[in-house]
Design the sequence.
């Protein structure tokens, strides 16, 4: 408790210094302390607004009807469309299966989503029967949700039935092949040497013999273990099919998402009824922006950037990095100015608000906040809320009963945010990451407007404390003129889940 009081008082820096010394003299005590109260390292520090001049101007902004009309205008047809022709999107089911393929996927929801797509592709390459992928417990979010808790497994199997064989669980003769079995010793059926971005030939040469010998092969780790380049076209199409057609959320996630979307579009329905008979507003549905504030404690610490919390915050986040990454964060070698000028710092809620305001969104814009937990809590979000008071999230839109099924389950919470984000008029993320990458690709596939912040430009603008609001706004508008959903062709080594053209799309 004394450390907590120190952080929230004038002696915060001294308390943080004592916290730095604690692991040196009492390492066991420190580890126990961190495990029991990890949030104390950073959550209690209150940061001051960092861009007060711009913020004051943004509060007084006025948006013309022409600006409003332009910002909300949907994307024009760009000449690309999803690959939906069955002759391109379906592959022929091969003959007798070579055996069962298991994969164990780590990471958060969106990293696991990409891993699932790759697992289907590898099963096709190997002519194997895919066992529904096993989702590891994420060490940050501590969520044990399974594939079937998140995704509609029957839909998944049905969509892919002509491409590969899929089973929900192993037959009794292979029931011994579990995560626990592979964690206790070296096993001949486990492949743990799959290189990052392995080729199709690598799997044929290294995994096929295991399948033929034992009738089963388990690959762990698996994330990012399939290359994006030099793949047969049918394998690329299959990955697209999984991502954009086979993976849909379970019905109760979709139902909750639909309810939230309706309450955003028809605000008068927020407190009305049970979701079946919404009152419709006479002026029609409202538009809304989904904002992913990828700004949790883990991200803040890993970025090694300064977020305005003073010396106490710097010391506590430095210690967080030391405990969780043992000096492996390369960003920590650079100053905050260097990181920001290179666009390597996530945008704070305040900075996201200033970006949206400069782009022309008025203070009556409805925002949906798609974030699990924001570092700094309500105090950190306060500036964004002042700029956009019509801001909602899962908690404000859904009843406690509706949230009951997903409470405490990070993957399901993220699934709801993903679903709402896909149905928003505009999506924007505070920094690149798996959610950003997955959403950008999915919305590109459907030609939906998605703002990609120009991180390097914004970092340099926010470093300039003498910048006036007109100068800031002009630079932001110019720097984002072609970053609102325009088709970008995938370059070598880049992910087709982020850049679906040309692998998943046709130039009509």
Sequence:
């Amino acid at each position: 408790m004394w450390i907590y009081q120190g952080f929230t008082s004038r002696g915060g820096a001294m308390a943080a210094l004592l916290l730095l010394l604690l692991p040196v003299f009492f390492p066991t005590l420190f580890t126990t302390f961190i495990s029991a109260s990890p949030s104390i390292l950073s959550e209690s520090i209150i940061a001051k607004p960092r861009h007060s001049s711009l913020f004051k101007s943004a509060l007084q902004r006025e948006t013309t009807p022409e600006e409003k009309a332009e910002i909300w205008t949907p994307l024009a047809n760009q000449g690309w469309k999803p690959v939906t022709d069955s002759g391109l999107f379906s592959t022929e089911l091969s003959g007798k299966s070579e055996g069962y393929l298991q994969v164990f996927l780590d990471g958060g929801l969106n990293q696991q989503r990409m891993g699932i797509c790759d697992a289907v592709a590898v099963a096709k390459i190997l002519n194997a029967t895919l066992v529904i992928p096993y989702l590891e417990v994420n060490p940050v979010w501590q969520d044990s949700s399974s594939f079937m808790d998140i995704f509609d497994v029957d839909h998944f199997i049905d969509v892919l039935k002509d491409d590969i064989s899929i089973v929900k669980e192993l037959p009794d003769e292979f029931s011994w092949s579990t995560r626990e079995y592979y964690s206790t010793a070296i096993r001949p059926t486990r492949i743990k040497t799959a290189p990052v971005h392995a080729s199709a030939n690598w799997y044929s040469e290294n995994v096929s013999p295991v399948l033929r010998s034992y009738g089963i092969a388990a690959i762990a780790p698996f994330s990012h273990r399939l290359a994006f380049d030099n793949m047969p076209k049918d394998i690329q199409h299959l990955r697209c099919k999984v991502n954009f057609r086979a993976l849909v959320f379970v019905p109760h996630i979709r139902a909750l998402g639909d309810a939230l979307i309706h309450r955003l579009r028809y605000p008068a329905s927020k407190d009305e009824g049970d979701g079946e008979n919404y009152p419709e507003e006479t002026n029609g549905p409202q538009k809304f922006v989904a904002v992913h504030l990828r700004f949790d404690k883990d991200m803040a610490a890993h970025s090694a950037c300064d977020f305005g919390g003073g010396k106490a915050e710097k010391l506590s986040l430095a210690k967080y990095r030391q405990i969780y990454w043992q000096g492996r964060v390369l960003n920590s070698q650079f100053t905050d100015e260097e990181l920001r000028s290179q666009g390597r710092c996530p945008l704070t809620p305040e900075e996201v608000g200033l970006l949206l305001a400069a782009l022309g969104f008025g203070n009556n814009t409805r925002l949906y906040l798609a974030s699990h937990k924001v570092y700094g809590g309500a105090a950190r979000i306060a500036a964004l809320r002042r700029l956009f008071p019509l801001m909602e999230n899962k908690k404000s839109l859904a009843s406690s009963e509706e949230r009951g099924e997903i409470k405490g389950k990070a993957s399901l919470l993220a699934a709801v945010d993903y679903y709402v984000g896909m149905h928003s008029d505009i999506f924007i993320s505070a920094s690149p990451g798996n959610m950003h990458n997955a959403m950008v690709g999915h919305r590109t596939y459907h030609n939906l407007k998605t703002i990609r912040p120009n991180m390097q430009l914004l970092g340099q603008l926010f470093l300039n404390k003498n910048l006036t609001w007109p100068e800031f706004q002009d630079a932001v508008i110019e720097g984002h003129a072609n970053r609102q959903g325009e088709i970008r062709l995938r370059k070598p080594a880049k992910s087709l889940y982020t850049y679906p053209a040309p692998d998943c799309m046709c130039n009509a």
Summary: Residues 1-42, 273-282 have pLDDT under 50 and may be disordered. Residues 109-126 form the longest helix (18 residues).
